[in-house]
Design a protein that fits this description.
The protein has twelve helices and 15 strands. By secondary structure, the protein is α+β, with helices and mostly antiparallel strands. Strands 1, 2, 3, 4, 5, 6, 7 and 15 form an eight-stranded mixed beta sheet that branches. The protein has a seven-stranded mixed beta sheet with strand order 9-10-11-12-13-8-14.
Length: 396
């Protein structure tokens, strides 16, 4: 534990097992202070699940006068590198801070002995807006609290009438061609979940992306969440939303749910049904069944806002955040950042920027050097093949 400031603030770096009941209660209080803090990804239960899979989970806790001021669960990587808990499924990352707290990311890192913290999807603190200087990215969520007394489907339909007319046309065509639509939800059934993950795996392979359904760390976390099947939905566990036609699964979302809050990680559909846009039909049904599912929020995984905006509203704003602490570890990472700065700060679609993101994504998902080398070689071969096909379309 390290102490600084006046009044004094104590900062601890603990294993999940060492977090006291008092600190867990303080953590829960911080969740209720933040407008998006009730996401399952920001809960102690999620951190406990991850800590059972990995020994590198640490919880950074700042206390003032015995009260919890800030909480940040991380993966403690070599050389003082802290990553968000649950990466690569870290669509929302901390820290959670108390109202009017003066604790900064640098304070947390320095007090816990880390040199750097990097997160692509760090939530913004509503109490410390001046601390978040990066441009916020938009995430999307279906939020029943936006329209608690009305029909959420009708509200979105009024806002996008032409789009919803087209979605209805697709839905009718799907039923006419293949059979009756059946919308289902609940704890994942192993055979159907395996089918969803297989469809997603094939998509990753087609697009030359790292397959997070089979990579070591991500596969283990998907399985651990799917295997958590509490008696009711107040406790954290796996949750799936499925679209069936004539008794056959054709699309689904899988993720983690706690209480009235669901965060989707995996979105997949039967490629043989792609002409019907089954993912759109699934989301259209999800709007109508939010109340019956007992959900207040249905957080959609980041990206693809071009279609999510028709079903969802902007959710938690997130930023790409890098914080570096003073000291030897921080100096090491500052030099490393400078060495890759030209690549990291290049345009998003520049080859260097894509390479940095790909290497980082591989490092998050695969623990061994051999697996990382294999994944990078696969990416290079896939990219080379894509360039060849573009240069010689007659061969594609």
């Amino acid at each position: 534990m390290k102490t600084f400031g006046a009044p004094p603030i104590d900062i601890s770096c603990l294993t999940m097992e060492a977090v006291s009941a008092t600190d867990l209660a303080g953590w829960e209080r911080l969740r209720h202070h933040h407008p998006h803090g009730l996401s399952p990804l920001l809960s102690p239960s999620f951190a406990k699940t991850v800590s059972r899979l990995r020994r590198d989970v640490r919880v950074l806790i700042a206390r003032k006068g015995g009260d919890v001021e800030a909480v940040l669960p991380v993966h403690a990587r070599p050389f003082g590198f802290a990553r968000p808990i649950g990466a690569p499924f870290d669509d929302l990352a901390g820290p959670l801070c108390a109202p009017r707290s003066t604790v900064t990311m640098v304070d947390l890192l320095a007090g816990a002995g880390f040199g750097i913290y990097k997160a692509q999807n760090a939530i913004q603190s509503p109490h410390q807006p001046e601390a978040d200087t990066h441009e916020a990215q938009v995430t999307y969520a279906i939020d029943r609290r936006d329209n608690p007394d009305g029909d959420l489907f009708e509200a979105r339909k009024r806002e996008h009438p032409k789009r919803f007319k087209n979605f209805r046309r697709l839905s009718n065509r799907l039923e006419r061609d293949l059979g009756q639509i059946d919308f289902r939800w609940g704890r994942p059934e192993p055979v159907r979940l395996a089918r969803l993950l297989e469809w997603k795996s094939r998509q990753f392979q087609r697009e030359g992306l790292l397959d997070i359904t089979s990579a070591t760390h991500s596969r283990a976390l998907l399985k651990a969440i799917a295997d958590q099947r509490p008696e009711d939905f107040t406790a954290l566990g796996g949750f799936v939303v499925e679209l069936h036609v004539d008794g056959n699964l054709i699309a689904g979302h899988f993720g983690v749910r706690e209480g009235a809050h669901f965060h989707s990680w995996i979105s997949a559909y039967d490629p043989d049904c792609s002409k019907y846009a089954p993912g759109m039909v699934l989301l259209m049904n999800a709007l109508s069944f939010m109340g019956e599912m007992g959900l207040d929020t249905y957080q959609l995984a980041n990206g693809h806002g071009h279609y999510k905006k028709y079903f969802a509203t902007p959710g938690a704003p997130v930023i790409s955040r890098t914080a570096i602490a003073p000291g030897l570890k921080g100096t090491f990472h500052s030099a490393r950042q400078a060495a890759t700065g030209l690549l990291d700060n290049a345009a998003d679609n520049a080859p260097g920027a894509r390479l940095v993101r790909r290497l980082d994504h591989i490092a998050v998902c695969e623990p061994s050097a051999l697996a990382r080398t294999r994944e990078m070689a696969y990416a290079l071969v896939k990219r080379s093949g894509s360039k060849s096909a573009a240069a010689h379309p007659e061969r594609a």
